[in-house]
Amino acid sequence: MTPTGGASEKLEIRSFTGGAFSENGYLVWCADTKEAAVVDPGAAVGELLAAATDQGLQVTAVFLTHAHLDHVEGLPELRKTLDVPIYLHPADRALYDRAAQQAEAFGMRLPGPLPEPDRVFEPGTSVTVGEVEFEVRFTPGHAPGHVTLFAPSQGVALVGDVVFAGSIGRTDLPGGDMQQLLASIRREILSLPDDVRLLPGHGPETTVGRERTGNPFLISQSPGTWA
Ligand SMILES: [Zn+2]
Ligand SMILES: [Zn+2]
Fold first, then answer.
1. From ligand 1's centre to the CA of 125, what distance in Å?
2. How many domains is the chain partitioned into structurally?
3. In a domain, 124, yes or no
4. Strands, DSSP E only, in 104-201?
5. What is the CATH number of the domain that holds 192?
6. Is 227 within a domain?
7. Pairing between strand 197-200 and 206-207?
8. Does 1 reside within a domain?
9. How far is the CA of 197 from the centre of ligand 1 (A)?
10. Per-position pLDDT tens, the chain of length 227
11. Domain interval for residue 196
12. From the CA of 2, how far away is ligand 1's center (Å)?
């Protein structure tokens, strides 16, 4: 181990919110190497890309927690300037390929065709942003191929639409399953330490501890912690 490696790496995070669904896209970067990843590029992708340029960041990947329209609609614009690998879990590929139909169902139109997702998220492996490692955790239920990205060294998890401050993801869309979602949250989110920050696809950030004790959808998932 070198003195500069390991726990000294620092992840910076900024969220960019926009569109009909007020989706949060994230720009995450390693402060040491200035390498960055874009997570769930939605309607505010223009602002996100401008910030990456302002900060002098080198974006090396796009990570998609899942393939719902609001999390991928920024990809056509992103692709104009960034030709970087796009990561998606294969179980969400069918949704991804139907993005135009998803848009239609909401009376919207995609700004262009989506680029090919050329990398596959494999649960149990990790992906890196500079020197920061993210575990890929499989969290289906809101979408069949939903993943959560957890950076143990940073105590931060990008949870997409799995869990929100005081709520959980909807399960009434194609491929949704409430029991599966609750099982995913119990297995992959509530198993994390209480002080882990949860950065969701909608609304403000929260923590594992706050949701464990105060989220009305999860109280039955943590028996004994609700006084
Ligand atoms: Zn979603
Ligand atoms: Zn969403």
1. 23
2. 1
3. yes
4. 119-120, 126-129, 132-138, 147-151, 156-160, 163-164, 167-168, 197-200
5. 3.60.15.10
6. no
7. antiparallel
8. no
9. 19
10. 344 444 557 999 999 999 999 999 999 999 999 999 999 999 999 999 999 999 999 999 999 999 999 999 999 999 999 999 999 999 999 999 999 999 999 899 898 899 999 999 999 999 999 999 999 999 999 999 999 999 999 999 999 999 999 999 999 998 999 999 999 999 999 999 999 999 999 999 999 999 999 999 998 655 554 44
11. 6-221
12. 40
